[in-house]
Amino acid sequence: MAEASAEICPVILCGGVGTRLWPLSRRHHPKQFVAFDEGPTLLQATARRMSRSDAAEAPGGGLEFAAPTMVTRSDFRFVVTQQLQDIGIDPGAVLIEPEGRNTAPAVLAAALHLAATRPEGVMLVAPSDHALPDTAAFHAAVAEGLRVVQARDDLVTFGITPDRPETGYGYLRLDAPPDASGRAARLAGFVEKPDAATAQAMLEDGCHLWNAGIFLFSVRAILAAFETHAPELLAAVRQAVAGARPDLGFLRLDEAAWAGVEDISVDYAVMERADNLSVVPFAGHWSDLGSWQAVHAEAGPDAAGLATAGAAVAIECDNTLLRAESPDQVLVGLGLSNIVAVAMPDAVVADKNRAQEVKLAVSALRERGLPQAEEFPRDHRPWGWFERLALGGRFQVKRILVNPGATLSLQSHHHRAEHWIVVEGTARVTVGEEVHLLSENQSVYVPLGVRHRMENPGKVPMVLIEVQTGGYLGEDDIVRYEDVYARG
Asked: Residue 471 carries which DSSP code?
């Protein structure tokens, strides 16, 4: 059994990509890294409610959290660590998946890693992209789950009390309606996403909860469950973890071993086969933000069903969501009804009735080879970010932000020259054998083929405007000679 003083080891799954919230969420910058209001991003909010600094007093005493274990993809590793650092949270480990293989391999890799460092630990596994604002209520539910884990070492899942006949979620079935006190109950089974009539019947019988995809179990119990119900998966993931190599503070799982890992959810691999399952009902607010309709509901629409964000102006609109994502762009809705309008500098999506079909737009853009299908206007890098301001036949203009103390790679280009103008902060620039210290309104020219590097030696972000000229301006025209981030 887990010790009564068990420290909870959060495991945050943040490697997913999706298109249902395009254009705000894209393959290269998915929704977990997006802030849907004036507060933190979804990842940051998830990490906060699973951290020691944000632990609320729950019935029976406060919760103790270890540093979170993050499971993500290589493309997201730097934005994950940057977003956590921005809110003062340092991850205990960041496991890099060579490619997405669903939740079972991700959970298993985290469990195997923790088995070597915290073998008596209790894992709290959660997606990084859900909205769950009532932290105190969440901690109370976790405390109840911890009681069950400590008492009988069950695998605990959390079920959301439904408030509508939702056909987009899976359900958890109980033998009787849950106790109003929020006490855990035995889980009788899982129900796949239902049709409308079945969802209505399950809402009325009171014995079904939405499956939130949040779990609590001891490291020992979940490894035993995989050993019993998915031994081949356990063997493959164990090999990938055993062959993992450190990479700039990250732990990169073995690529060859991972290629043979089955793509399967933790529900299918283990939960639906295990007999030691309990569920903790959660009556607080929760949303998976899985569609623009869900974002509209989360935005708190007024009596007419209108919600706006950013520089959006609504005139005689109802049942409508207007989001303007760029401060330089004003979105005006006139006489709109039942519309989702999300305006970004490079893309717009609309029509609330068909918001679930956004993936069709993404597919159409991808077939045409358009970058808007997957690329975000602001490209996040380990040193900061850049965004395109203008693009012509033989020129491109970018705004570049470099974080304090950050350094870009020493590099050169075969096809373009560059002109840099510092507009905020101070830059240390290497061009060939010369090093320049540039302040605001100063500039430097980088000829084609010359090795160069920029650094921010200051304590505040440095912003510069880069003007590129040449016959080819693609991001793959980079020859790196030195790189503190060890990119290829």
From this structure: S
